[in-house]
Amino acid sequence: MAALSPSLATTPGGPGPGPAPRRWNALGALRRSRTGLPERIALTLVLLLTVLLLLAPLLAPHTAKAIVGDPFVAPGGRFWLGTDSQGRDVWSRVLVGLRVSWFGALAVIAIGAAVGSVIGLVAGMSGGVVDAVLMRLTDAALALPGTLVALMVVAALGPSLRNTLLAVAVTWWPWYARIVRGQTRTVMQLPHVDAARLGGFSPVRRALVHVLPGSLGPVLVAASMDVGSVLLVLAGLSFIGLGSPPPAAEIGSMSAGGLTYLFNAPWIALAPAVALFAVAVLANYAGDGLQDLVEG
């Protein structure tokens, strides 16, 4: 998790007296932000990549599991990235595998952010014993080695994509709980939150309408910075055989299966690894750009 600047706290909206909340305009923020050209390009490419991977089953020349040619055909011509040991199109499998990894990482982050945000919001608004108990549980979860916990969960539930996503999500929520709890304690001091409390609004409405919006900026930035890390974690678990079993197209298992032929047909192992590396770097650049955008 990247360290977050205190300037990431946003001014939440909500009725009541006090300073008028500043609405965040994405286009205006983009013009005012310090986001450099590489980061802006990365943000655009991430959006295009998401659309591309969403349509991957339609754009892939062949289905990921179909045997469409001779084994070990070198890249070029009909097969852009060659074929694997079974005669399957490597390009089609990489495209589908990136789709699985990309949307799997987004799902993990969404689950972790949702669970962590709820815990952090409750802890920050409640204070006292509730805050202390929830934060000690969060500290205990942070103290456990995340990779080891994920391995234990997958080993207990069995190797599959669903279980891998669940295992990683279990280890990811504490970071968001810490972020949201700190932001909540800050936002609770703002005048419009006091006005809402004096106005008799219920705790649930104050939490959802007056407090939570002020904590979402840092959560969004943290989530964007986490995409590359989650991609690598999911690929690592798949690499050691804890993802979907073959012949499913997953980046980690494809690279692992290609290691046997690394010297004779290196594209089988290297193509998915290089593709994953490029997507992870792109995601990190986009996260930097989004951080500058929110700060701007």
Summarize this structure as a short list of keywords or feature phrases.
mainly alpha, 0% strand
Strand content: under 5%
The domain tally reads 1
* Mean of residue pLDDT values: 82
- Principal-axes geometry comes out as elongated
Total of helices: 12
* CATH level-3 fold name: MetI-like fold
Specify the CATH class.
Mainly Alpha
Structural class by SSE content: mainly alpha
| Main beta-sheet strand count, sense and barrel state | none
Given as residue ranges, the uncertain stretches (5+ residues, pLDDT < 50) are: 1-30
Strands, count: 0
Order of helices and strands: HHHHHHHHHHHH
Describe this structure in words.
By secondary structure, this protein is mostly helical. It has one domain: Orthogonal Bundle (MetI-like fold), CATH 1.10.3720.10. It is 67% helix and 0% strand. It is built from 12 helices and no strands. It has helices at residues 26-32, 37-54, 56-59, 90-126, 128-143, 146-157, 161-187, 191-198, 203-211, 216-239, 251-258, 267-295. Helix 4 (90-126) runs antiparallel to helix 5 (128-143) and helix 4 runs parallel beside helix 12 (267-295). The chain is elongated, with a radius of gyration of 22 Å. The two termini are 21 Å apart. The model is unreliable at 1-30 (pLDDT under 50).
